[in-house]
Design brief:
With 573 residues, this protein is α+β, with helices and mostly antiparallel strands. Helix content is 36%, strand content 20%. The strands form four sheets. A nine-stranded antiparallel beta sheet has the order 3-2-1-13-12-11-10-9-8, with helices on both faces. The chain has a four-stranded antiparallel beta sheet with strand order 14-15-16-17, covered by helices on one side.
Length: 573
């Protein structure tokens, strides 16, 4: 019986958590108890010895586990530093309301609606104006608008979903899925065959076709097939330039139909819209309750004239979708939710990595930088998959798409690193939302709360920070050797580094200690401040691609006491 009990206790002693601590804290039995039970004396001695060994092993295992964790290169996801950011952003909503109302009045937009998304939730939604000029019915947040070219992002996600399922390849010739393309006459004999990727990124070489494309929505599938067989002219060789093509996205819709074995509209509804809860989104106007439809108008001679809605057809893929403000915010929230990259279960119809992929630059379309007085304006970027990706002076990454058709104009724009998006819908031909939505983001930014998530350092980066800080303050060859990657002292000999760093420490007065948090650029690169007796130093490291990660780059430089370690702005003089 003694043997059975002691074995269980020894197992408990080396198990993790509270039970291990409980048994390792046990004290030896009083001597009197041992005297009164001589037959069990040897068993108790064995147990004491076993527990001592077990606790030593457990302690060593715990130390080894902690050491291994301190060298882990797996970082937590980026996070927001300000816990009050959402409340601060909400404080700006009245100013945004005034901005939008003024815009709608000045532009004479019959009906409109807009929403602000924060961290995957609809934080604010407003509707105004007239849904139906004939009856005077008012627009509300359940009104249905056509979103035109914003429909392209849905087609792109459908393609990626099929790619992820192994049913198509982005780099396969499009003619593999659409046989009518096999007879295309290319602009040059050395031109590559058009791929699915070319179509997704507006780089198939087709001519820009916005005015023409707007009038193609009702083309039948038979008419579309005849168009394809008749040939398509090229303005550039495939894969060489960006040129916006509605025709290319109509072909993507045919690819979805052929690969999935069902009409595009049905595939979209069953595989993407319904799983996302977008029950009021459709490609067909006749499916919309007339009592909810925001009718589209053009302004002519000071009067609103009704634009007859075109029925859905083969070109509806590129711009035929209709939706509500609530459904569209679900869409933007879903796309925003792919950020940041993280562990955890997948909850959407398409995996997060693919949703992030479509929001990253795939085809550069150009850049401009304009100086006007004291202000510099930057616009650089291009196209992802069904979405535009841009950078300006305020935001490193902005993802968006606009939509314009006779009777409608819309925009959706969001900042993946900031967790904030805006959608806006209007029932006036080509409603020009972009400058107004950009100003709405500027209003939010002025709250001071529209800041990006901050990358978090991996445990190994924090460990190297502590080690490098000790090394800078008091150089130790064994410590230097233990944390250096194999290149560090080949690039610059250890003795020279020691002398250079020592001179900087001496000039700063010595006694240098880490001050404040590390500024992590990513999981394995960061910089921090050392506060010394008479001055400050900035230390920056980049870790090597090894396990465990060691220091491949080390920089130590003087830093003014009032200087910030924040990243430099994109636009500066």
């Amino acid at each position: 019986m003694v043997a059975a009990v002691t074995a269980a206790m020894v197992v408990a002693a080396v198990a993790p958590g509270a039970r291990r601590a409980q048994y390792c804290d046990m004290r030896p039995a009083p001597a009197s108890r041992a005297v009164h039970r001589p037959a069990r004396r040897s068993g108790r001695r064995w147990l004491a010895t076993a527990l001592a060994v077990a606790c030593t092993v457990a302690s060593g295992a715990g130390t080894a586990e902690a050491h291994a964790q301190s060298l882990s290169s797996v970082a937590p996801p980026a996070r927001f530093a300000d816990p009050q950011r959402a409340e601060k952003l909400r404080a700006a909503f009245p100013a945004v309301d005034s901005l939008i109302a003024r815009f709608a009045a000045e532009r004479r937009v019959p009906g409109y609606a807009y929403g602000i998304i924060i961290d995957g939730r609809l934080a604010h939604v407003v509707a105004g104006g007239i849904r139906d000029v004939r009856t005077g019915a008012r627009t509300d947040t359940a009104s249905v608008f056509r979103i035109a070219s914003m429909s392209k992002s849905f087609a792109a996600l459908a393609i990626l979903q099929l790619r992820d399922e192994g049913k198509l390849s982005l780099d396969a010739p499009a003619e593999q899925y659409v046989p009518e393309l096999r007879g295309l006459r290319y602009a040059t004999t050395d031109a590559p065959r058009i791929t699915v990727r070319h179509l997704l990124t507006h780089s198939a070489g087709f001519p820009e076709d916005n005015p023409w494309g707007d009038q193609q929505l009702d083309r039948t599938e038979a008419e579309f097939s005849a168009m394809l067989r008749g040939g398509i002219p090229f303005s550039t060789a495939p894969g060489t330039a960006y040129e916006y093509s509605n025709y290319g996205f109509a072909i993507l819709g045919r690819i979805v139909t052929n690969v999935a074995g069902m009409p595009y509209a049905r595939y979209l509804r069953e595989r993407i819209l319904l799983p996302l809860g977008m029950r009021h989104t459709t490609l067909e106007t006749r499916d919309v309750d007339p009592a909810r439809l925001a009718y589209g108008y053009r302004l002519q001679d000071g009067q609103w004239l009704l634009e007859p809605p075109l029925p859905d057809g083969a070109f509806g893929v590129m711009g035929g979708m209709l939706t509500t403000p609530a459904d569209l915010t679900r869409w933007v929230a879903f796309l925003l939710d792919a950020w940041p990259a993280r562990d955890g279960a997948e909850t959407g119809p398409v995996k997060r990595s693919s949703v992030r992929e479509m929001q990253q630059l795939q085809r550069f379309s150009g850049a401009s930088a304009v100086a006007g007085g004291e202000q510099l304006t930057l616009n650089a970027g291009g196209y992802g998959f069904g979405l535009r990706v841009n950078q300006n002076c305020d935001f490193r990454v902005a993802v968006s798409h606009t939509g314009g058709l006779p009777g409608y104009g819309s925009i959706m724009k969001w900042l993946p690193e900031h967790g904030v998006g805006i959608i806006a819908l209007g029932s006036l031909t080509y409603t020009p939302w972009t400058p107004t939505v950009d100003e709405a983001f500027a209003i939010l930014k002025r709250t001071g709360a529209l800041e990006p998530r901050e990358p978090q350092p991996a445990p190994v980066l924090e460990t190297r920070r502590a080690q490098v800080s000790r090394l800078v303050n008091a150089w130790s060859p064994p410590l230097a050797d233990s944390l250096a990657a194999m290149n560090l002292f080949r690039d610059e000999p250890a003795d020279r580094r020691r002398a250079q760093i020592g001179a900087l420490v001496e000039a700063a007065g010595g006694d240098c200690r880490p001050e404040g948090a590390m500024v992590a650029e990513n999981a394995l690169r960061g910089r921090w401040r050392l506060r010394c007796a008479r001055g400050d130093l900035v230390v920056a490291v980049t870790l090597a691609p090894t396990e465990p990660a060691t220091v491949q780059f080390l920089s130590v430089a003087p830093l003014a006491r009032e200087a910030s370690l924040a990243p430099a702005p994109a636009c500066r003089r």
